[in-house]
Model the fold of this input.
Amino acid sequence: MCGIVGYNGKNKAVNILLDGLEKLEYRGYDSAGIAIRDKEIEIFKAKGKLVNLKDKIADKELNGTCGIGHTRWATHGEPSENNAHPHSSNDGSITLVHNGIIENYHELIDKLKKHKYKFYSDTDTEVLTNLIDYYYKKYKMGPIDAINRTMVRTRGSYAIAVLFKDHPDEIWVARKDSPMIIGTNKDGTYLSSDVPAILKYTKKVYYIDNLEAACLKKDKVIFYNLNGDEIEKELKEIKWDISAAEKEGYEHFMIKEINEQPEVIKKTINNYIYKNKIDIYKSGITEEELKSFKQIYIVACGSAYHVGVCAQYVLEDLTRIPVRVEIASEFRYRRPILDKKGLVIIISQSGETADSLAALREAKSQGIKTLAIINVVGSSIAREADYVLYTLAGPEIAVATTKAFSTQLIVFYILAIEIARIKKKITERNYIELIEELENIPYKAKYILDNLTRGIQKIASKFSHTKDAFYIGRNLDYAISLEGSLKLKEVSYIHSEAYAAGELKHGTISLIEDNTLVIGIVTQEEVYEKTISNLVEVKSRGAYIIGIAAENIDVSKISDFALTIPKTNKYFYPSLSVIPLQLIAYYITIDRGLDVDKPRNLAKSVTVE
Ligand code: F6R
Done:
């Protein structure tokens, strides 16, 4: 949440900062601000989206070649210009942007007030600004000393970029549990909370660890540990393509990313399957370990949790290992009792979700092995997990996940098939058949995009004024209903609920009336007749039904609008049925005239609890 950028080099900073903030807007868009250092430090802020800040500075001549910027997702204090970053210390010695949350800010405010500091905003960030100033002036031992003392006193998560008035041509940064990368090229040094913001300028980056700090000079970066000693860091190369962070002719990132699914699914499959053989062992995990797990716990948030729900059906059925799926924010605080012979799998696109990171740490503290399924290389969860299986979705910019979700599912299929093989729960022949069918998924996904998009686009306008929607299915169709429902509500703001089809009659069916939208997903042969009966029940109460069914299941008689998806193995249907669900959410939202890439109140990477 919140995005931060910085640049120190030969070129004018303003365009680099605005460009970076545009790429980071998915991290928060309540307000934005920049601080540019020429002779003096000048700060500009505006409430609302970045465009407001751009308008505000359009006629300004800003020649400074060093600066920091911020796009905000409000935590402490309402979205307003006053609460927007950058913030300055009382006498302007320190200027700072911050991503994260300071948990003990009340205690720190009290301390600073005793030293006559005044506070002008409602943010926790201003505390950091003044605390650095306090230590800087009290001990007079320079920026790294002041930053380290501040880190020691502060509880919470943060990534900060700081300008010291007395230290021109330097940007100081530090982090704990909030993302931060530092890039370099011949034109200068860059910082950002996420890769897309600097991808245009450099692919050479340093990852800075928790409780470390760095000084960005114009031509080099110096890293420090918490003792203030200089430390070495390895320069790494980002593999993502620049075009992946651009819209490339699409109207929105969400529809671009929906359309990228066949390609990124294929890439992810090819990363782990070669010549009909699965290889997930470059992650470091061994066959022996995989064989030994007696219990699997899957922990994640939001859509990633829905991947976990799908995975539970597939893993249990294929491997016969018991699986529990848990919402990360609940897992941590219920003092879970974990089987020491178990495996905890954390799923996260960003690799920075605070609750998922906390769940990972909880598992590690109990001595349980952890495996992370992650999209962003070098992210906190990826660095802390025992093993990582990466999804190859590339940068996902739209706030609502689509392509990362689909690649996470693929990794789970691969994992489940491999464990089933090792545990001899499937024959060699089943193994090959499953792999061959998995390799067909990208083509079937492409077929859906090519053949169903137009029909969905047309029908979507009929529902742009709908107040409620219900998604129903059984087994894996229920699991994917959860995702379809979340997708619709988060981008269109239409209330929607997903229900196990058989559960509807235990209460929720009373909400069905004339023209209530019900989306029925019917792909699982073993239970399809039962789901159809449930659809008949809602139809007879007036519901308008969109039926999404596998080729061999006929829902046309019961549906007002039927969508057919190609036949596949029962486990893989979620990879196909999710596509029409994403398209329904996208086109209904477009018809409502809403900003589909940046839904209100949301941010891409949820780094606060
Ligand atoms: C919904 C969505 C969120 C994320 C959730 C977890 O479209 O994107 O529900 O799935 O916030 O995020 P990651 O995967 O980054 O941990």
